[in-house]
């Protein structure tokens, strides 16, 4: 992915691509945290709490990445 970002020369395309990449990473983190939560099964309450915490953090990261993508798209529209 970094190689593809390095190839972009248009700053607008680069900002958009970086924001999209962050969203994809955050979505992956959410899926991973949800899987960890599902895998907890009959583990201890502490394990369950830790898994919930990971899901919450990943969801927050996803929200931040999505906001950055919206900001990038708005910036692109303003500069065109």
Q: How would you characterize this protein structure?
A:
The protein has 80 residues and is an all-alpha fold. It has one domain. Helices cover 89% and strands 0% of the residues. The protein contains three helices and no strands. The protein starts with a helix and ends with a helix.
General form: elongated
The portion of residues assigned to helices is over 70%
Taken together, the total number of domains comes to 1
Could you give the count of β-strands? 0
User: What's the pLDDT, averaged over the residues?
Assistant: 78
What can be said about the biggest beta sheet? none
Give the end-to-end Cα distance, rounded to a whole number of Å: 25 Å
Task: Give a quick precis of the structure.
The chain is mainly alpha-helical and 80 residues long. It is built from 3 helices and no strands.
Layout: helices, strands, pairs:
Elements: H1 2-7, H2 11-40, H3 45-79
Helix pairs in contact: 2-3
Keyphrases for this structure?
80 residues; mainly alpha; 3 helices
